Amino acid sequence: MTLAIGIDIGGTGIKGAVIDLDAGELVSDRIKHPTPEGGEPEAIIETVALLVDELGTDGVAHIGVCFPAIVRNGRTMSAANVSERWIGLDADTLFGEALGRDIHFVNDADAAGYAETLSGAARDRRGLVIMTTLGTGIGSAFIYDGVLIPNSELGHLELDGRDAEDWAANSAREREGLSFAQWAERLTRYYRHVEFLFSPDLFIIGGGVSKQHEEFLHLIDVTTPIVPAVLRNNAGIMGAAALAARHAR
Questions:
Q1: Distance between CA atoms of residues 79 and 82, nearest Å
Q2: Is the dihedral of CA 52, 53, 56, 58 positive or negative?
């Protein structure tokens, strides 16, 4: 049994668990803390260190952390719904120093997409799979024939003069009090545009709202098959852990 810790940092919450990578499942309770107000690096690092301490590292071979940003070689190159001080930050080194061991830092949607490839809705799927996570923003992951293509940013596609996530993310639905039917109209506009640009073979919808997929998924009018994520809110945790193990090989 190979154990790893996965940590998923979001705009509103930071959650983590111990994963059995061989079985592809959580072997601890999932622990969650609120994301510190302002999303400053020091406060988030402190919260992650607390979470890892609560989980315990006995027998843990790898630690993976995922985050809503473009991540190049462990350095965060953007900042979505967190402090702009993350831009250009050497996150791998800073988190590694705080935790006292090597860690692997990745984009959150990439982690979720990778997890769905290993044991979720994209498992054994050929062709281009695009996973999008609908939450505070819109994250995305490209998987082609099972291979992750990192750092796509489909939430920031410009549509109607605005970032798509400004009006199509789940946060926009909640903020504006939209019904699921009204929201699905916006999602149709968004996914048709993505469909036109990339001609995917499958869309996977993740994020916490995917638990309510029966309310809106069938209302999104696209020709590409569209299915809910299987791993849902655990996908980022599991993917971050699995990518940390892959990176260590």
A1: 6
A2: positive
